[in-house]
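Tokens as discussed.
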């Protein structure tokens, strides 16, 4: 579906965004479970926003007693079937009517400028996923109506250093890459309602603490979305960061496995186990000679063992029974990179990895003398969505780190290690 308003930018340059679309409505969706006091504090803080939300929806994840909310706040509820934060967020967003969706948790209290800052970029760049700054404070003895911009700093708890450092290193995610999803925090996220629907919202198979926000951010990035951090959009979490609360080893393991199984991005997915979606899809021209196909794929899969290879029937019979080999078809939406082999290419794992990482902000780069290419699918998806081919520029030079297959090369030489 075409974007309903706004524009897009090259790369992740959200700092180049133009003017905001006029007349957009902003919905705040607050997720809640058994925290009536915290919810009351958060709803009171939303009354003090410099940019008042057009609507507030509270999504309750099966509390024993329905929370009390003001008459102008909509309450939606789901049955208590365990931890279902992802489903609660989806329920809340589905009940909202705004053009921009701003997420909060019941125990995360926004400063007065939060909604305005969070809604800004999605109002200009409808593909942008924005993460705010979640700070931490002990608010147990603080009156519910106390100004959070005063009470938060007065009762501050440590902020995760690794997250603060990540935002500083990436210039508030302006320099984010395919690992940037690790810096998304579900309690302080915002995007256009159109983009939420395009992505399908949160994956409801996440049924324990954590991971659904990283998964959403990873899918957004692969689909061609932008990722930004608004340091001026501050919300205070009542209590310490999860890392300081002493989570069990089983809980941390479950979250890590779930994220690895859902996403294909290096840094959070499996390195060698054949589970979860592939980050790289490989296609091979039908005319390549058998030895070139076997040697090329043997070298490539040694470097990227979790790649998905799509071959015609003849080449599939040649390669044999390998679970990574599939019939030719459209690259799955989970893939970030596409390698098209129009010739045989030889290289050690370091050479293959360097080629795959060498796009340098371009959507496509030639990696062989006969037209083999590696393509950043997220940029080509964005260019197609906006019908703006200039967004998906081609690298002007051929990357020569791989050796083209030529006369005299044999499979025996490749396997024996003397093919150059």
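Sequence:
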């Amino acid at each position: 579906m075409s974007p309903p308003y706004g524009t897009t930018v090259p790369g992740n340059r959200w700092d180049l965004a133009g003017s905001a679309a006029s007349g957009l409505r902003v919905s705040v969706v607050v997720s809640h479970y058994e925290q009536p006091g915290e919810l009351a504090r958060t709803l009171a803080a939303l009354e003090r926003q410099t940019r008042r939300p057009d609507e507030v929806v509270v999504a309750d994840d099966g509390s024993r007693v329905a929370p009390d909310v003001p008459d102008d706040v909509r309450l939606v509820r789901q049955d208590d079937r365990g931890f279902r934060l992802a489903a609660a967020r989806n329920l809340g967003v589905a009940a909202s009517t705004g053009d921009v969706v701003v997420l909060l948790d019941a125990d995360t209290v926004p400063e007065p400028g939060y909604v305005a800052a969070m809604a800004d970029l999605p109002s200009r760049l409808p593909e942008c996923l924005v993460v705010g700054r979640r700070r931490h404070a002990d608010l147990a003895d603080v009156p519910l109506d106390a100004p959070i911009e005063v009470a938060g700093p007065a009762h501050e708890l440590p902020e995760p250093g690794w997250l603060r450092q990540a935002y500083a290193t990436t210039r508030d995610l302006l320099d984010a890459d395919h690992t940037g999803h690790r810096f998304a925090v579900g309690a302080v996220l915002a995007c256009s309602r159109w983009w939420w629907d395009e992505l399908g919202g949160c994956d409801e198979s996440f049924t324990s603490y954590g991971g659904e926000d990283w998964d959403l951010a990873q899918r957004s990035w692969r689909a061609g979305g932008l990722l930004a951090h608004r340091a001026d959009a501050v919300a205070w979490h009542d209590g310490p960061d999860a890392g300081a609360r002493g989570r069990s080893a089983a809980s941390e393991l479950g979250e890590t496995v779930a994220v690895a199984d859902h996403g294909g991005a290096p840094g959070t997915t499996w390195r060698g186990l054949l589970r979860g979606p592939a980050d790289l899809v490989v296609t091979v021209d039908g005319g390549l000679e058998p030895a070139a196909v076997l040697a090329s794929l043997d070298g490539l899969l040694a470097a990227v063992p979790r790649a998905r290879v799509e071959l015609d029937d003849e080449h599939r019979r040649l390669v044999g029974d390998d679970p990574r080999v599939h019939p030719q078809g459209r690259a799955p939406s989970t893939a970030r990179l596409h390698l098209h082999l129009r010739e045989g290419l030889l290289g050690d794992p370091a050479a293959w990895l360097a080629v795959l990482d060498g796009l340098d902000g371009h959507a496509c780069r030639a990696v062989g003398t006969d037209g083999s290419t590696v393509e950043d699918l997220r940029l080509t998806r964005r260019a197609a969505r906006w019908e703006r081919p200039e967004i998906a520029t081609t690298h002007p030079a051929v990357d020569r780190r791989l050796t083209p297959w030529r006369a005299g090369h044999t499979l025996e030489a490749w396997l024996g290690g003397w093919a150059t």
